[in-house]
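Researcher: Structure prediction, please.
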Amino acid sequence: MADRDDADSTPRAAEQSDMLSRRRALTAAGLLAAGAGVTPAQGASSLSSEQSSKQTVGEAQGPANAVEFRARFAQTGASGESFTGYGYLTRAAGVEDAELFAGAALNETTALLTAYASGDLARRVLDTSVHSLDIVGTLAVYQRGSPGATFADPASFQVGVKVAEFDLTLQDILTVFAPAKGIPTLTGSMRQTLAGALAGGRPRRRFGHVGSDARLFATGLGTLVDPITLNANLEMAGNWVTE
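Model: Predicted structure follows.
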């Protein structure tokens, strides 16, 4: 009998010890929360609210595209050393279609998130049919309060609130396939230098974050408009991927 009692008492003692340990752990957690001036439930709610307030758009885990766009580029200057680009976002991670376009038509006239870029030629290597150009510059994204951009007026893509800005280091590889006609392939790196808040929607969202890196890709069709100054116009579409 003594042996059976001893055997029965062993699991009961272990169970009581486990219950006591759990009580002590819960009590310690409660004291820590009380010392911070909140209950555990309040702490969890506060963290959720804080995370929501810092929600970002325009970023996506690679290899998914963070942003997709359509654009026009103009190569100008006495020797084709200056570049401007202007267009609109056709897709952005975390942004609804209704925030991208005001209407059924998906084009520059209905776009609400537009972009404008400028850059300078850093190096040019010309060959028979394949040319390489290195370009450095900046790109900004604007949120318009209403649609109205037009490719006939490049400045119309700079209307609204600037919600993002990036430094650019790009390479343009141009494949000439016919007189005055070429296929440009634009690739390079982006470093975000400004991250602004988007208007509308809850919770408050920012477009990316300062210091983030991305890889840009675009291609399309280029037309040489002056063989002496090497000025050209390009119609392109592309994307960037968060690194």
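Model: Confidence is low (pLDDT under 50) at residues 1-11, 22-53.
Researcher: Thanks, that helps.
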